[in-house]
Design brief:
By secondary structure, the protein is an alpha/beta fold. 49% of the residues lie in helices and 15% in strands. It contains 9 helices and 7 strands; from the N terminus they run E-H-E-H-E-H-E-H-E-H-H-E-H-H-H-E. Helix 1 runs parallel beside helix 2, helix 1 (15-26) crosses helix 9 and helix 4 (103-131) packs parallel to helix 6. The longest helix is centred in the middle third of the chain and has 29 residues, at 103-131. The mean pLDDT is 97. Bound molecules: 1,4-dihydronicotinamide adenine dinucleotide.
Length: 246
C-alpha cells in the first residue's frame, strides 16, 4: 500500500506514534522516527520497522522548538531524499481545572501539540509544494471536538489542530497534497495509564464498545489516510473512539 514512500512520524518512540511508524513500515514505507528524548526506544522502533524490509532512521526532535524541528526535518529530507507522508503525532497533557491551571501549563501544551504540528507542516510545506503530492495526518482527539473537563489546554490545542488541518488541506489542495486528522477517544497507552483509576472506569462506562481502543486501531486509520486508498479525502476528521462521541 505504501511501497517506496517515506513517512515522518513525530513522537514515534512509544504509544500511538510507535504503532503508526511500525504500521506504515508494515505497509512498505520507509520511516523517519522522530523522538523527543528516548533514543534507545526510537532505535528499537527503527530495528522493528526494518524487519519489514524498509529503511528506518531516528532523529531527535523537540517539535516545540522551531529551530530544532527545522534542522531535524532538513536532516531527514537529506537522508531519505524526500518525504511523502507527515504524521504529526507528538502530544502531551497537563490536565487541571481552569481554576487551577497556570498560564505556563496552558502554553506548554499549546506549544507541543499545536505549534509543533504547525512547525513541522511549515518546514515540509515547500517540499510538498514542489513534489505536487503528499499526505499529512494530524493526531487530534475527541477532546478537541467536544471539550473535556480538566483539559482546557489540551482540548484547545486539539481543536486548533483540526483548524490547522482544514487550513493546510485548503492551502495544499491545488498541489495534490491531502491533509486529514484522526480524533482518537480512549486509547490504551502511557497517556491514559496516567489517569486516576476511577476516571478510567467512568470513561470506559461511557464508551458504547465498552473497551479502550488500541494504538493499532489508530495506526490502521492513519495508514489508510496516508495511502492512495484515501485519495479523494482531504480536510476530514475521523473519530476512532468506539462510538464515544457519536
Ligand atoms: P504518549 O505519551 O505515549 O506519546 C506521546 C509521544 O509524544 C511520546 O513519544 C513523547 O515522547 C512525544 N512527545 C512529547 N513531547 C514532545 C515534544 N516536545 N517533541 C517531540 N515529541 C514529543 O501518548 P499517546 O497516547 O501515544 O499519544 C500520541 C498522540 O495521540 C498524542 O498527540 C495524543 O494527544 C493523542 N491522543 C491520545 C489518546 C489516548 O487515549 N492515548 C486519545 C486522543 C489523542
Amino acid at each position: 500500500m505504501l511501497k517506496g514512500k517515506t513517512a515522518l512520524v513525530t513522537g514515534a518512540s512509544r504509544g500511538i506514534g510507535r504503532e503508526i511508524a511500525l504500521t506504515l513500515a508494515e505497509h512498505g514505507a520507509n520511516v523517519a522516527v522522530f523522538y523527543a528524548g528516548n533514543r534507545d526506544l526510537a532505535e528499537e522502533v527503527c530495528a522493528l520497522a526494518e524487519q519489514h524490509g524498509v529503511s528506518a532512521k531516528s532523529f531527535q526532535c523537540d517539535v516545540s522548538s522551531f529551530e530544532e524541528s527545522k534542522s531535524a526535518v532538513e536532516e531527514a529530507l537529506q537522508c531519505f531524499g524526500g518525504i511523502d507522508i507527515l504524521v504529526n503525532n507528538a502530544g502531551i497533557t497537563k490536565d487541571r481545572l481552569i481554576l487551577q491551571m497556570t498560564p505556563e501549563e496552558f502554553e506548554r501544551v499549546l506549544d507541543v501539540n499545536l505549534k509543533g504540528a504547525f512547525y513541522m507542516t511549515k518546514h515540509l510545506f515547500p517540499h510538498f509544494m514542489r513534489k505536487k503530492s503528499g499526505k499529512i495526518v494530524n493526531v487530534s482527539s475527541v477532546s478537541g471536538l467536544f471539550g473535556n473537563i480538566g483539559q482546557a489546554n489540551y482540548a484547545a490545542s486539539k481543536a486548533g489542530l483540526i483548524a490547522l488541518t482544514k487550513t493546510t488541506a485548503r492551502e495544499l489542495a491545488g498541489r495534490g497534497v491531502c491533509c486529514n486528522a484522526v480524533a482518537p477517544g480512549f486509547i490504551d497507552t502511557d497517556m491514559t495509564a496516567a489517569m486516576p483509576e476511577a476516571a478510567r472506569k467512568a470513561a470506559l462506562e461511557s464508551v458504547p464498545l465498552k473497551r479502550m481502543g488500541t494504538p493499532k486501531e489508530v495506526a490502521q486509520v492513519v495508514a489508510f489516510l496516508a495511502s492512495d486508498a484515501s485519495s479523494y479525502i482531504t480536510g476530514e476528521v475521523i473519530r476512532i473512539d468506539g462510538g464515544l462521541c457519536m
